[in-house]
Amino acid sequence: xxxxxxxxxxxxxxxxxxxxxxxxxxxxxxxxxxxxxxxxxxxxxxxxxxxxxxxxxxxxxxxxxxxxxxxxxxxxxxxxxxxxxxxxxxxxxxxxxxxxxxxxxxxxxxxxxxxxxxxxxxxxxxxxxxxxxxxxxxxxxxxxxxxxxxxxxxxxxxxxxxxxxxxxxxxxxxxxxxxxxxxxxxxxxxxxxxxxxxxxxxxxxxxxxxxxxxxxxxxxxxxxxxxxxxxxxxxxxxxxxxxxxxxxxxxxxxxxxxxxxxxxxxxxxxxxxxxxxxxxxxxxxxxxxxxxxxxxxxxxxxxxxxxxxxxxxxxxxxxxxxxxxxxxxxxxxxxxxxxxxxxxxxxxxxxxxxxxxxxxxxxxxxxxxxxxxxxxxxxxxxxxxxxxxxxxxxxxxxxxxxxxxxxxxxxxxxxxxxxxxxxxxxxxxxxxxxxxxxxxxxx
Length: 443
Ligand code: LLP
Hints:
Layout: E1 8-9, E2 15-17, E3 20-21, H1 22-29, E4 33-37, H2 38-55, E5 60-64, H3 71-79, E6 83-86, H4 89-97, E7 105-107, H5 114-123, E8 127-130, H6 133-145, E9 150-157, E10 179-180, H7 185-195, E11 199-205, H8 216-236, E12 242-244, H9 262-280, E13 286-289, H10 293-296, E14 300-312, E15 316-321, H11 330-334, E16 340-342, E17 352-357, E18 366-373, E19 381-385, E20 405-410, E21 413-418, H12 423-427, H13 438-441
Parallel strand pairs: 4-20, 5-6, 5-13, 6-7, 7-8, 8-9, 9-10, 9-11, 11-12, 12-13, 15-17
Antiparallel strand pairs: 1-2, 2-3, 4-14, 14-15, 14-19, 16-19, 17-18, 20-21
Helix pairs in contact: 2-9, 3-4, 5-6, 8-9
The structure holds ligand LLP.
């Protein structure tokens, strides 16, 4: 049994996380419930920062908010000395509400809206990662109107193919993100950015993909990017000082997964950048990375209540839980796999093989296709592990299921960080035109 962070089996034979018994958590907060191991999140942040402190002291680590962001998460990331990768006005707003300093935010996105650019400029967001020439023009105009100079990095597609799911692979030439390096678009954009008065080009960015287990593509992209920085210097005379290599380090979902450690990533990336810079005679840039999943992924566990168990003899046993693709769309979207336990009977060995189904009205709403569980019964608590990244952040209200609550647990304390949605929340944004209201409609 592979548990992460502070998770363990306690004396009652229950799953305990952050010193909190999962059965007690369910009693207090209900299910489905996202439980986040605060100590593990902090320790992952520290491993990134310490890894770079040892190998590349000027490096900065920007937590990728898209993986999981709430006001509490923003506050925690700020406390841990992280920068923040944000991709929308909504993420900027959330982070500001959590007290995250705007200066330490990097604003990403391949189609930033004028209102989002305005919000970012007006709140003092530190860096824009510009994806395309249209955005460059929008930003120049918006900054000029405010008599500001916006600091930018240009996003480049380095032509590196990371081995991961097609939907989360981004470094290849055929991508909706970034400016292509090999056909000259990236260099043309550099020249254009350097010609503008209200943007200050400080560096370059790339991101090869997500849930990446092989470190080699990270080293390759470091080499490609340093050589491009050198080309920029030779062709324009400008020495850019920042290099952002994006996020992407994979995590464990099932026990066969074997992702590299944060320490090995920070060491390898630092060495690759140093080596490439030395070879090119390029001054060491300030290095940035943007991990999301490897900060929060393994720190999240979703607790569900087991409901209907349907056995189709000779075919399959379906065990249904009180959540599903609404709180975790990843199996349906990417074929993602997960491990699970009966949290209130952790000591017993698996006795049945089941498929874990969600409660949404579609057959694709399966959370786990096949898993051995301990004689599960209705009313048991099912814990699905490694749900900290891209679960809450991609949750929906499909079938009008309220989205779950989320708690941070640490040292035996559980603090609510997202309250459970209510039916009232579900209709709060609905508008019923007078002509459609039953009372008005009666002739
Ligand atoms: N930086 C950029 C520019 C990104 O696009 C991403 C992720 C990250 C950083 C953070 O990557 P991470 O360290 O988390 O791998 N919804 C998908 C993942 C989409 C990732 C999008 N970009 C999933 O559930 O697997």
